[in-house]
Structures
1.
Amino acid sequence: MKATIAQWRGLKGMSQTELAEAIGKTQKTISAWETGKTEPRPSDLDAIHKALRLRATDHILLQKDLT
């Protein structure tokens, strides 16, 4: 479930640090989301979508996988 962010990030060739900088979070936050320790807020999902340049259908899948 939480691996989805890591999978999308990996497909886009972004490190945790790069994604964190792009959305104004820390690398520790990205790691916590990817390991399931915490959940991203809906606004965070929107920021991830923009940073990774996901298509609308990809964004829907990302939200669905995290709920």
2.
Amino acid sequence: EMDSVCKQKEHLSPTPSQPLKGLRIALDPGHIGGNMAMARIERKYISMKPDSIKHPNEKIELIEGKLTLATALFLKKQLEDSGATVFLTHNKPNVSAFGCTFDEWCKKNLSHAIDSLLKEGSITSKQKTHLLGNATQKDIFSLIFRDIELKERARIINDFHPDITLVIHYN
């Protein structure tokens, strides 16, 4: 086991100007919401009015997916400047680890995903009918997409073979 650890470290070749040279780092900015519509589907936002008397039209909205992506993009540049090779599970607002938006994924993959879940016994026929019929986007996201997308994040991170993985959240 020690030999494999030593072999893994052989690819590192840090220098004073690039102390992270050779290090492979995966960054996973949590959530995908880059706008309030997607943040509402994910249920990952804060919306508040700081002073409803003096400034009734002023509103502060914090979208966790936007914050995590901004943090990951900033961190990516800092790490690359230090010599690391950096991989992001997604690098644009509202784009999932599948490289598309939640809506695009639903149009292309929802029916197949539901059929697969039914076949493996994870959902019932009644749940399939509900999901394909009158389920809300929030239902589809929380009952189907979130877990499938998390598995995709894990898969693409593992394919990158990072030395370190950092999952970014603001809870």
3.
Amino acid sequence: MTKEKDVLQKYNIIPKKISYKNKLKIITTSTNVYCLKVKENQITDVYEYLRNHNFNNYIPLISDSSDPYEIYPYISEKNIDKESKALELIYTLSLLHTKTTTYKELNLEQIKEKYEKISNEINKLLLYYYDLQDYIETNEYMSPAEYYLIRNMNKLYISLNNAKHDIDKWYKLKEKETQERQVLLHNKISLEHFIKSENNYLINWNKSCKGNVVYDFLNFFKNDYKILEMENLFELYQTKYPYTEDEKYLFKALLQIPWKITFKETNYVNTLKVKELLDYLEKANHLILKNDEKNQKA
């Protein structure tokens, strides 16, 4: 296997200083600074696709497809607050989706398979929480985490039933369509994977793929809802790249699906787990309500 130093020599990169930032190795030479990381998959075609679609908000690789490492120039970030950085991310994300939009013939079998997969997930979660509630309520004494969950269990049921309603609406709309639009999904959207410098850059494209546009903002919400007010960011994104009616229902359905909670830790940790889930559902619900109210006024 090619060693790291061999790849650096291949591109005449002679390290003077080496430091680390997350999974990145930062290599400083006498003239430039580079990032080096182990290649997670073949992403050269992604960069070619972006170039062909005139999307330039990525950092081009110095290394080529035959190398086991990715090497690219190190870009210094501007020191701006997270809210301003998030706005720049939204502009860049909407540009990515606008420039890579394509349409493909709708495959009803695939749509049905997707519908059944999401519906089954919702039904399994409903049964799981019904059983968990029955189990907790049969205990003589509830732990603080169990009591906290039982007091708020209705929020989970409402969210799951709303998700079921929305995915049913999505499927009914898709049955009448013949085409579906796709974009190139970055698939790991977060503030961590965005650099604001003289230019805007989305980084870490190793999970990118073509697919339904809703998954990028969905990932963004799930990654950063704890640190950002998502309602205004979603509203801004919708002014730049409005979802179609069926995309809105799919987005709402996926956004409202909670995850499973298990009580296998200390009471303190279990209580925090319940709080995290309830906070997520509350923020997801606020985003949906605000967007629905705006659509109704329009």
